[in-house]
């Protein structure tokens, strides 16, 4: 089965989030979609069905005009929660193993978040408190790591 870009995620709450492919900004930051109801899959990372590396999916936690987004639930998600990724004809279930906070900024010291080597995994990222407008906004990222519960299934 060919590896594919994820097109939607069903979060532990049951809420489904559309996913679009994204790159990076000129300054090297992940170019997350502006709409809080849409997540971005980093096209430089692993794909659904790849046997290795991180499938990196990120979304804004909130916005001034739209309020809280679906990824806000990542701030409190616990070990054992399940996330389902779907693409054209492929579905895979992942189980959350960890949630940690990392400081906002460059991820060069946290390459495990986006690394395409190592065991296959899903990495979900959103902004996390505290929010400090004078320092550019949210000061942390919530990083949720989940592992596949089995191989991808054809749908």
- The domain tally reads 1
CATH topology heading: Sortase, Chain: A
- Multimeric state of these chains? single chain
* Largest beta-sheet characterization: 8 strands, mixed, barrel
- Counting DSSP E segments of at least 2 residues, the number of strands comes to 11
What is the strand content?
Answer: over 45%
* Mean pLDDT figure: 90
Count of discrete alpha- or pi-helical segments spanning 4 or more residues: 0
Major sheet: arrangement of strands: 1-2-3-4-9-10-8-7
Please give the structural blueprint:
Blueprint: E1 8-10, E2 16-22, E3 38-42, E4 54-58, E5 62-63, E6 67-68, E7 82-87, E8 90-103, E9 121-132, E10 137-148, E11 153-154
Parallel strand pairs: 2-3, 4-9
Antiparallel strand pairs: 1-2, 1-7, 3-4, 5-6, 7-8, 8-10, 8-11, 9-10
